[in-house]
Specification:
By secondary structure, the chain is of the alpha/beta class. The chain is about 25% helix and about 25% strand.
């Protein structure tokens, strides 16, 4: 069985092709999907990619969260399909209320681009099972609206229920409360994060490591985890 993972393109998506490439490298079949469609084409998992959907007008991800295909995304999430939102895709998941809280302008009001250290806080999701709890990874980050916010009571709930999936280490690049870099839903099938794992899947193109320049592959386990989750569900 070949796992088919859909990547939805919205007006202003920038990293949809990168996500498709990462899926292919991980061993699955990428399927290009369009924001104006209501057809998920029978895919096994979904990626909402990074970019600046609809120019980030109103709020980042707010208009995309109302796109026609998001009705199907919500239905798929409710049925347990693995769904990953990367950067702008994370913003869409929050705006669609598939994940909690909100994302606002970076604390220093500037776009940032850096290779970011993260700690894996929850390795028991469809997109993180090939990591271990507490594992430190390096994933490229690039955003202007990456400051995660929520009420104190909601932050306490997220922490208490283990729904923080990733946390910034070393530097909090955008002012996210409690250093939150990514979340999961209660079921573990929907995950969103601001850094870009699709940019760390192939030697020569990833972050630097102690072994060699541009050799970081810490993004690849996101996609192999999803393939494993799909295959396990089908077994």
């Amino acid at each position: 069985m070949t796992t088919r993972i859909g990547v939805i393109t919205f007006p202003g998506s920038l990293d949809d092709r990168d996500a498709q490439r990462a899926i292919r490298i991980a061993g699955a079949e990428p399927v290009a999907l369009w924001h104006g469609s209501h057809d998920l084409e029978g895919v096994d998992a979904l990626v909402l990619p990074g970019g600046f959907s609809y120019g980030d007008y109103l709020r980042a991800g707010a208009i995309a969260a109302l796109a026609p295909i998001m009705s199907e995304v919500k239905d798929a999430a409710a049925k347990g399909m693995p769904i990953l939102g990367i950067c702008n895709g994370f913003q869409m998941l929050v705006e669609a209320h598939l994940l909690s809280g909100g994302l606002i302008r970076n604390a220093h009001q500037q776009f940032i681009r850096r290779d970011q250290r993260l700690r894996v806080e929850n390795a028991d999701t469809a997109w993180t099972s090939d990591f271990t709890d507490g594992q430190e990874i390096v994933i490229p980050l690039k955003n202007a609206d990456g400051g995660y916010i929520a009420s104190e009571s909601e932050l306490d709930r997220l922490e208490g229920e283990g729904l923080v999936a990733f946390r910034y280490l070393g530097v909090n690049p955008n002012g996210s409360l409690r250093d939150i870099a990514g979340l999961t839903n209660e079921r573990g099938n929907v995950v969103g994060l601001m850094p870009h794992p699709e940019h760390a899947v192939e030697e020569g193109f990833g972050p630097n490591t102690p072994d060699a320049m541009r050799s970081g592959l810490d993004g690849l386990p996101f996609f192999t985890s999803a393939i494993g989750a799909v295959l396990s569900a089908a077994a």
